[in-house]
């Protein structure tokens, strides 16, 4: 029973990671989604550079995804690649900063060329 929960949480975690990485591509003209994405980017930076744990990681550990089946095994490899921790942290922060730069550029363009 817990393995099923673990697989669902792991899939949700992967979805969240993909949203953080690619969310700026989906948010143009959608204020609520933009606000959610910016908040997720800020949260991502905080989790990466602080000792705060990600709630989804804690949920995965609670449900013990490491004893899961085939799907959980491969999702786990995607969510937690076998790379040095410093590199994962740097890449995570870089992705968040690049997305925030996209939003800053959009905001600056909207201030320079306001819609009529």
Relevant terms:
5 helices; mainly alpha; 116 residues; single chain
Report on this structure.
This protein is mostly helical. It has one domain (2-112). It is built from 5 helices and no strands. The chain has helices at residues 2-22, 31-49, 55-63, 70-79, 85-112. Helix 1 (2-22) runs parallel beside helix 4. The longest helix has 28 residues, at 85-112. It is elongated, with a radius of gyration of 17 Å. The mean pLDDT is 81.
Task: Give a nutshell description of this structure.
By secondary structure, the chain is mostly helical. It has helices at residues 2-22, 31-49, 55-63, 70-79, 85-112.
Secondary structure layout:
Layout: H1 2-22, H2 31-49, H3 55-63, H4 70-79, H5 85-112
Largest sheet: none
Classification by helices and strands: mainly alpha
The best one-word shape is elongated
Low-confidence stretches: none
Count of individual helical segments: 5
Q: What is the arithmetic mean of pLDDT?
A: 81
Kindly state the percentage of residues in helix.
Answer: over 70%
Round the Cα radius of gyration to an integer and report it: 17 Å
Secondary structure tally: strands? 0
* Series of secondary-structure elements, N-terminal to C-terminal: HHHHH
Cα-to-Cα separation, first versus last residue: 56 Å
Taken as a percent bin, the fraction of beta residues is: under 5%
Number of domains: 1
